[in-house]
Amino acid sequence: MSSAILAQAHSYLSGIPLEVISQGAEAVVFLTTVHPYLSESMHPSDIQISSKYIIKYRPSKTYRHEILDKQLTKSRTAAEARLLSKLYSLKIPAPKLIALDAPHGIIWMEFLGFQLPNGHISSLKNWLWYLERQQEADTTATIALSDTVKQVLTLVGQAIAKLHLQDIVHGDLTSSNILLEQNIEELQPTLIDFGLSSYSPLAEDKAVDLYVLERALTSTHPVYSEKYNDWLLQGYEETYGGKTNNKRKYAEVSKRLEDVRLRGRKRSMLG
To answer: Where would I find the Protein kinase domain in this sequence (predicted)?
Structure first.
């Protein structure tokens, strides 16, 4: 990351410790230990103070006209924050919104995930990689791996279905944009990074969402991806098509997914 972007972030977040976690074309994600407006010594009893928080920052784009850049930054940041708030009210697993500075492109969110035994954060991709390495080292772990992964991927499918039932399309569903939370009884997948999300009732858009994740699993976990995708779609069908009045909608998404797959295969053949 350029020093100019970091300096820009510090100018808006003066005195806030920032650790870069990731950087994409649209935004930089920081880890911080400071709450935006509360401290340990003074906060309402119904608000839990954590030791870590996530700050997503959209830096200005010098290739855009200054006025247009400010408008886009403000509108896109506000739209993502509104979506996070909506997801929380719908009880769809996603980061909880803590604070917003839309004009400066800043969203403050709760920190999610935990550290895997190999030191990596518990994204779905990292977790699957870790278990796959464990299984390769110990072939007796096959049954346990299948049971555990099937449960988690079924939950992932259910979470995506809940999103789609609200006509919300993620826009960038990859195994890196799904974090696992450690609950008492089971691992709970949480969807993150809604910067490219949108509202759409179209089965085509929902099918593309599923296809993007399917391709991500195939490319990063080629040995096991067929099972992974089957389990994911089982969870999706259970939730999306679970009610009688949704069965037709699910059938349409399923058909569109086959069409999207076919187009993807044709593109691969043509290079």
So the answer is: 15-271
